[in-house]
Amino acid sequence: MIEFTKYPHVKDLIEHYLVSLSRSDIKNILNSGITNEQEAEVFCRFIWEMVGEMNEDEEKGIEVLGSSDNSEMIPDISYEVTKLMRSSGYFYVWEKISNEEI
C-alpha cells in the first residue's frame, strides 16, 4: 500500500481524483504499490492528469477537500511522488513524464 507520510493529504487528493476520473487502475496501484515500470508510468501520468483537473476545478469554483484552490498542494504532491518514485526505483519515469508534461 502506498502511504504518504510527510503530506498525508496528498493521498486524500489522489483518492478524490481517482474516483472523479473513474481510475480503478490507480486505486489498485495505491493498494498494491508500484511493482513495475508500466505501473510507474500509469501513476505518473495520472498525477499530471490530476493536476490538470485541479486547475479545471479551480476555474469552475469546484470545492475539493474543503478548498476551491488546491494549487498550494502541488509542491506537496511533487515531494511525495518524487520520494515514492525514488524509493520504488522509478524516479527516471517520473522525471521523463514530468519533462514531457511541463
Order of helices and strands: HHHHH
Number of strands: 0
What best-fitting shape do the alpha-carbon axes yield? globular
How much β-strand is present in the residues?
under 5%
Helical percent range?
55-70%
Kindly, what is the distance between the CA atoms of the first and last residues, rounded to a whole number of angstroms?
Answer: 28 Å
Q: Give the biggest beta sheet.
A: none
> What structural class results from the helix and strand content?
mainly alpha
Uncertain spans, ≥5 residues at pLDDT below 50? none
Mean pLDDT: 96
- Compute the CA-based radius of gyration: 13 Å
Q: Could you say how many structural domains there are in total?
A: 1
Q: Tally the helices.
A: 5
Word description of this protein:
It is built from five helices and no strands. It starts with 8 loop residues before the first helix and ends with a helix. The chain is mainly α. The protein is globular. Helices cover 70% and strands 0% of the residues. It has helices at residues 9-20, 24-32, 37-60, 74-88, 91-101. It has one domain (10-28, 36-101). Helix 3 (37-60) packs antiparallel against helix 4 and helix 4 (74-88) runs antiparallel to helix 5 (91-101).
